[in-house]
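dumping this here so i dont lose it
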């Protein structure tokens, strides 16, 4: 009586290999026992029978066990005993960010299925069901790709405003001593991205690229100027150097740049500093109107017209504050 001994279990897989196993004749042709183990995700079953049949497919037909070309069949014959192992192929759906396909498998664990498909997971990737889970026929395995992305953005930092009292300014008046400048800050945000869409973000770094500069504003503490008990409608003030002059007929026509007669209360200015026609108040001199110019009157210089030489000489040259009046 001939026997066939296999040193190792030899599997026949899908398609032609399974058909080859099914059609292979077994060495022993006598009436003998056969054990069949069928594995599937829904449960395992074992069948024992006696048969004269020599081909695997005939033995399975005798046991009323249907077989698909996708099933995995394993046959071992040793010492006159035949053992047939069948793993039923079941369909599962595999879904990734870019694919959704059907796959037939005889592996009933998620990790084994992904390994067979060559799908490798990153450190942040997720799988549903988990890798250790078993699957049922028709199950869906979701592979969710996740990774970290960093993005750096810049934003402006507001400047502060500091106020300083100034006894040289009249109450209610303000003067900007230093213009404020905004700073620049860079912020690095780390996003958790899932299948190309950001889920969450958190700040991982901040850096001040440029510090803001404060704005400094002086406010007046001096009492308002009054004339005959009336407060002057001051809209601005300039620190200037003044000179007294009179319309000497020897070198002057007696007419101003605006064509009016020069007299007390008329002043010569640089129109780039004080526009012609501006009404002024000059302490120690009084009300004045800017109607004249002069080649030497450049910048913060002002000439005050007097009616005669003695008044002009007595005034001489004086630094002072010129107040600009509103209408």
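and the seq i came up w/
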């Amino acid at each position: 009586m001939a026997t066939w001994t296999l040193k190792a279990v030899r599997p026949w897989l899908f398609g032609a290999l399974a058909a080859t196993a099914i059609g292979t004749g077994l060495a022993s042709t006598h009436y003998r026992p056969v054990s069949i183990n069928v594995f599937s995700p829904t449960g395992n079953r074992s069948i024992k029978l006696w048969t004269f049949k020599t081909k695997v497919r005939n033995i399975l037909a005798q046991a009323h066990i249907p077989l698909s070309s996708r099933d995995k069949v394993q046959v071992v014959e040793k010492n006159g005993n035949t053992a047939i192992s069948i793993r039923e192929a079941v369909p599962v759906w595999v879904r990734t960010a870019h694919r959704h396909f059907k796959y037939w498998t005889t592996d009933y664990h998620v990790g084994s299925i992904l390994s067979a498909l060559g799908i490798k997971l990153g450190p942040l990737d997720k799988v549903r069901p988990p890798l250790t889970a078993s699957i049922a026929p028709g199950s869906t395995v979701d592979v969710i790709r996740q990774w970290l992305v960093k993005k750096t953005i810049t934003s402006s930092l507001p400047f502060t405003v500091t106020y300083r009292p100034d006894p040289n300014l009249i109450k209610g008046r303000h003067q900007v001593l230093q213009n404020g400048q905004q700073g620049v800050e860079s912020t690095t945000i780390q996003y958790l991205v899932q299948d190309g869409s950001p889920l969450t973000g958190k700040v991982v770094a901040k850096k001040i690229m440029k510090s803001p500069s404060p704005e400094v504003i002086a406010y007046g503490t001096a009492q308002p100027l009054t004339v005959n008990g009336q407060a002057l409608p001051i809209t601005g003030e300039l620190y200037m150097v003044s000179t007294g002059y009179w319309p000497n007929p020897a070198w002057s026509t007696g007419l101003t740049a605006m064509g009016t007669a020069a007299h007390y209360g008329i002043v010569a200015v640089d129109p780039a500093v004080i526009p012609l026609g501006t009404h002024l108040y000059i302490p120690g001199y009084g009300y004045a109107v800017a109607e004249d110019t002069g080649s030497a009157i450049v910048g913060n210089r002002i000439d005050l017209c007097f009616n005669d030489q003695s008044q002009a000489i007595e005034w001489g040259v004086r630094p002072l504050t010129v107040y600009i009046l509103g209408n």
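Residues 16-23 form the longest helix (8 residues).
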